[in-house]
Amino acid sequence: MMSDPHSPTFPPPVTDALVACHDCDLLYRKRPLREGEKARCVRCGALLYTRKPNSIERSLTLALAALILFVLANVYPLLDFQFQGRAQQSSVLSGVRELYAQGMWALAVVVFVASILAPLLKILALLYVLLPLHFGRRPWWMAQVFRWIETLHPWAMTEVYLLGVLVAFVKLSDIATIVPGVALYSFAALIVAMAATDAALEPEAIWERLETRR
Amino acid sequence: MNPALPVTAARAALARCHACHLLSRMKPLAPGSHAHCPRCGAALHLRKPDSLARAWALTLAAYILYIPANTLPIMTVVSMGHGEPDTILSGVRVLIAGGLWPLALLVFFASVVVPVLKLLALTCLLISVQRKSRWRPRDRTVLYRITEVVGRWSMIDVFMISILVALVKLGAIATIEPGAGALAFAAVVVVTMFAAMSFDPRLIWDALENPDER
Ligand SMILES: [Zn+2]
Ligand SMILES: [Zn+2]
Ligand SMILES: [Zn+2]
Q1: Is the pLDDT of residue B214 over 60?
Q2: Using one digit for the tens of pLDDT, what is the confidence trace for B106-163?
Q3: Whose CB among A87, A102, B40, B166 lies 3.0–4.6 Å from A143's, allowing a Cys bridge?
Q4: Burial category of A24 from C-beta neighbours within 10 Å (exposed 0-12, middle 13-18, buried 19 and up)
Q5: Would an 8 Å CB–CB cutoff place B92 in contact with chain A?
Q6: pTM for the full predicted model
Q7: Interface of B with A in 129-148 (CB under 8 A)
Q8: With an 8 Å Cβ cutoff, is A20 touching chain B?
Q9: A156-205 per-position pLDDT tens digit
Q10: Cα(B111)–Cα(B114) distance, integer angstroms
Q11: Whole-number mean pLDDT of chain B?
């Protein structure tokens, strides 16, 4: 190949062989890892990259489980409230609806995004990427969808929401009879499933498999 | 140990993609134009754009919102026709009066201590980066990581209100109305999360790059 005398000589261009630390920008030459091994930055301690066994298949299975649990957690009531012969049920959505009905629409939006929309979109986006990859296909708009997953991550506050429900539960339990509903248990299981999905996911493996499909 | 190269990615003119983590060579660009990741199409930057200005603006906004969040009522419990407004702190006091110590501590920590510490931590990071401080960069990076992870837990009270509002609708006996303080409080959490996201921890380490410059 001819080289342009006016341009500086570039070291290897866009490269998979190097990796930069997320937190301090130090440059590393990548080395192959054994399964389960982690490479950490020596300067700041950040995780550089990992290698997880069967990453795509395991995160796919767990994301499917999370989707089922998400449906259960939103269809059934969270808590049953009984007080002097009156009964009231609450679900995730009824909390949002009530805030909206009382004129606090901005608050309703915050609760809706954090407890329903962001977790659901995150699960669906993961399935959208992982399912085709599992069957050896390249999903359309794969890069964009994968980017959303990272953007959505901090806004899915499933575990915080569950803690808020438990505080409400304890607060009311000495003035009324409160019975936990199916959704409460599904919610707890959903948190475990989502955390396990994140733990099994290895973005490098996804991009690697994508590269071989091109 | 990892084979660290004695340079940062930025010094080697390599930009790390926010979305897929691929390193790409940054060529000089025409003003106003953008480099894009060849693998996923995300915009490429050596550092998060306008990191300090954005993080400062959002942090200051959060400080201001913190005042109504703590002085306005987050909810009003209306029982037998007369209502008692609750602020975050009076809510904690009610829990203590009811003997619910662990819960009072949890709410106090999540709603009062965490947001204040998070804002102070961000302010420290911003000032130290602005002064090009070379003081304990590793500890400051850890402080940033904690700040990023811990903020969402402050939403506990907001979620609790959404459940209480939906559950306690007992006609003439009692109702719970959400207050403007809850909205301000949710805004503090969201704005502080955006502030932490716009801060670039690599700026902490950039001060170590050119020792002779200062
Ligand atoms: Zn590092
Ligand atoms: Zn990319
Ligand atoms: Zn840009």
Answers
A1: no
A2: 999 999 999 999 999 999 999 999 998 888 999 999 999 999 999 889 999 999 999 9
A3: B40
A4: buried
A5: no
A6: 0.89
A7: 137-138, 141-142, 144-145, 148
A8: yes
A9: 999 999 999 999 988 888 778 888 999 999 999 999 999 999 999 888 77
A10: 6
A11: 88
ipTM: 0.88
d(CA B199, CA B49): 9
- Tell me if A133 sits within 8 A of A210, measured CB to CB: yes
Q: Which residues neighbour A200 within 8 Å (Cβ) at sequence distance 6 or greater?
A: A52, A55, A58, A59, A62
With a CB-CB cutoff of 8 Å, which residues 106-125 of chain B face chain A?
106-107
- Show the DSSP H helices in chain B as ranges: 51-71, 88-97, 101-108, 114-130, 137-150, 156-167, 180-198, 202-206
Residues 35-74 of B with CB under 8 A from A: 38-42
C-alpha A31 to ligand 2 mean position (Å)? 21
3-state secondary structure of A86: strand
Measure A64 CA to nearest chain B CA, in Å: 23
Task: Report in angstroms the alpha-carbon separations of B191 from A143, A152, A157, B73.
Answer: 27, 16, 15, 20
Indicate whether A6 pLDDT > 60. Answer: no
Q: How far apart are CA B6 and CA A201, in angstroms?
A: 30
Taking one residue from A and the other from B, the number of pairs with CB-CB distance under 8 angstroms is 222
Going by C-alpha positions, the residue among A90, A105, A56 that lies closest to residue A169 is A90
Contacts of B173 (CB under 8 A, 6+ apart): A83, A84, A86, B79, B80
Tell me which residues have their CB within 5 A of the ion that is ligand 3: B 43, 49
CA dihedral A15, A16, A19, A23 (to 10 degrees): 90
The type of residue at B210 is N
